[in-house]
Specification:
The chain is mostly helical. The chain contains 7 helices and 2 strands. The radius of gyration is 17 Å and the shape is globular. It comes from Nothoprocta perdicaria (Chilean tinamou).
Length: about 200
């Protein structure tokens, strides 16, 4: 599966490219095209344990509300979270630590830092969110944002062109195929993460 392959591919070095580019600038040269920073943060968050709850949104930037799994979005919780009803990605990490760890990961080269040294899982979540937020082009690209919202059924009461859930799923799949490869692979990787 995509998640397993990404972890194998990024077991060692993180890419060291200038921040603020597009997602492809940080992706490896061979598929799946998921940036190492994303893989490492997600892997560490999942290593610490997650609990799925209800249908509240997890709050990752660059993913429109309409891009929820049909089962509902998962709220990701730390098993020892001081905010048991708050999604893991909704609780901010300490800003200074988020910036420091993001820079460490982006500059890591052949020896990536051990993310187990980050005491607060919310810092890791903050690094991931800050990385996605800082891209010049979001995960769901500017040019496809409206198409994603339409495909997801935003304003369905006004639109008769997407009549039911099956049509909505087909429309979303079609729009996903139009994403740049690194965006598509990263979106798939993150959606699998959010479903766990």
């Amino acid at each position: 599966p995509l998640g397993h392959h990404c972890r194998e591919q990024h077991a060692a070095p993180l890419l060291t490219r200038r921040p603020q580019g597009v997602l492809a600038d940080f992706a490896p040269s061979v598929p799946p095209l998921v940036p190492a920073l994303v893989v490492q943060c997600v892997t560490e968050v999942e290593t610490r344990g997650l609990a799925e709850v209800g249908a509240a949104a997890a709050g990752l930037p660059g993913v429109p509300w309409g891009c929820r799994a049909s089962r509902g979005s998962a709220v990701l919780l730390s098993p020892f979270s001081p905010h048991p009803q708050t999604g893991l990605y909704r609780v901010p990490g300490a800003e200074q630590l988020v910036r420091e760890w993001k820079q460490r990961l982006l500059r890591a080269g052949e020896a990536p830092p051990a993310l187990g040294a980050v005491a607060d899982v919310h810092v890791l979540c903050g690094v991931l969110k800050d990385f996605l937020r800082g891209l010049q082009e979001p995960l769901v690209t500017f040019s496809l944002h409206a198409a994603f919202l339409q495909a997801a059924g935003e304003g369905r009461a006004r639109r008769a062109d997407i009549p039911d859930e099956a049509a909505c799923s087909a429309a979303l799949c079609h729009v996903v195929t139009k994403l740049p490869p690194a965006n598509r692979d990263t979106l798939a990787f993150l959606m699998l993460h959010l479903l766990r």
